[in-house]
Specification:
Keywords: Membrane, Transmembrane, Transmembrane helix
Helix content: over 70%
Strand content: under 5%
Oligomer: single chain
Structural class: mainly alpha
Order of helices and strands: HH
Distance between the termini: 63 Å
Number of strands: 0
Length: about 70
């Protein structure tokens, strides 16, 4: 089998566009989390756990309200 000389267009798009965008988003989220943790005087893991708890509670309430008969 012959190996192609260049990567495919979808792989090149993924490597050039999607991956750098995801890395930048993750980095900015990490910086925001660190700044919030310093400002509030909490550990970042506590903020992440609290955010996850609030998000899951919001999803639970939304699901329960959508199942209620009209």
């Amino acid at each position: 089998m012959k190996k192609p000389s260049a990567p495919s267009k979808p792989k090149q798009f993924f490597d050039v566009q999607v991956v750098p965008m995801a890395v930048n988003a993750a980095g900015s989220l990490e910086v925001a989390l660190d700044q919030a943790a310093r400002r509030l005087g909490l550990r970042p893991s506590t903020l992440v756990a609290g955010s996850a708890a609030l998000l899951s509670l919001a999803v639970l309430c939304a699901v329960r309200s959508s199942r209620r008969p009209a």
